User: Which sequence fits this backbone?
């Protein structure tokens, strides 16, 4: 990711080269499958969701590389999973507090 951010000239000269496409395609396929089996709302924008996940994980990895002791990756993972499961609501679908 850092290399991509620092290589703007290369990508301007080679727009067909997009190594991140593999990651976004993989994540998008996972979400498409989840949508097909009813785990994700049908109207959800899969492209936006894939970008959110990749961007979030990119930031987490960067922070962890900068300060490995300052990032509790297990706690962050649990929190991200809860956000994906319940959104930013104040209660679960059954009415119980999150």
Assistant:
């Amino acid at each position: 990711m850092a290399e991509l951010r620092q290589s703007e000239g290369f990508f301007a000269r080679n727009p067909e080269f997009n190594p991140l496409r593999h990651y976004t395609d993989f994540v998008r396929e996972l979400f498409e499958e989840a949508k097909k089996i009813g785990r994700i709302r049908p109207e959800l924008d899969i492209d936006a969701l894939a970008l959110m996940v990749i961007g979030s994980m990119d930031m987490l990895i960067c922070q962890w590389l900068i300060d490995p002791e300052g990032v509790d990756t297990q706690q962050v993972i649990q929190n991200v999973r809860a956000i994906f499961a319940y959104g930013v609501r104040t209660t679960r679908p059954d009415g119980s507090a999150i």
Helices lie at 2-6, 8-13, 20-36, 46-66, 73-86. Residues 24 and 54 are 7 Å apart (CA to CA).
